[in-house]
Amino acid sequence: MKISPLKVGGRTIKTVIAVFLCFLVDTVRNSNTAFYAAIAAILCIQRTPKDSLREALNREIATIIGGVWGMTVLLIEKNIYLIPCEILRYLCLSILLIPLINFSVLIKQEKGTFLMCVVFLCITVTHGTDESPLMFGLNRIADTTVGIVIALLINQIPVAEQKAK
Questions:
Q1: Residue 81 pLDDT
Q2: N or C end: fewer C-beta atoms under 10 angstroms in the chain?
Q3: Helix (H) or strand (E) holding 107
Q4: In angstroms, rounded to a whole number, what is the distance separating the alpha carbons of residues 123 and 18?
Q5: Domain ranges, ordered by start, for the chain
Q6: Distance, CA of 70 to CA of 65 (rounded, Å)
Q7: What is the dihedral of CA 139, 126, 106, 81, to 10 degrees?
Q8: Nearest to 144, CA basis, from 106, 164, 116, 104
Q9: What are the φ/ψ torsions at residue 106 (nearest 5 degrees)?
Q10: DSSP strand E in 88-148: where?
């Protein structure tokens, strides 16, 4: 049995470069949330620049909407009323997915619905007790934007594809 050498395709190389650039930008920004930029870059490096742009737009819109909804809930909790029972809070956050999902359908962003929900829950569940959860929300949106921009730029670089044997 002959073992062929490892083949690394152009899209793989672009993905690696984009993720590394996300980490470099995070080092300059010092946001400590490069993970979100890297995720956006990985998902937005698609087969063609056109596919990348379509994915990037869906991702950006979904992240902004989920982020704004999440930050709004945190503002209400911080300034108006915080549900004292954790289980009841989780129930309310789960129920709040209904208007978020309906909103995504209303604005014809069904492809981004899952991401809106993920970003909303990421902000409200995992960062609600942060000293500045709103800053996390804004950084989360900014990091996604950084990853998207890097992915779109990197995906413009032509790469010779290896032919299958």
A1: 84
A2: N
A3: none
A4: 25
A5: 10-154
A6: 8
A7: -100
A8: 116
A9: -60, -40
A10: none
Pull the structure tokens for residue 106.
């209303």
- Neighbouring CB atoms inside 10 A of 24's CB total 12
User: The tokens of 32 are what?
Assistant: 């400590």
List the pLDDT tens digit at each of the 165 positions of the chain: 666 678 888 899 999 999 999 999 999 988 778 899 999 999 999 988 899 999 999 999 999 999 999 999 998 888 888 888 899 999 999 999 999 999 999 999 999 999 999 999 998 998 777 777 788 888 889 999 999 999 999 999 887 655 544
Dihedral pair phi/psi, residue 155, rounded to 5°: -70, -10
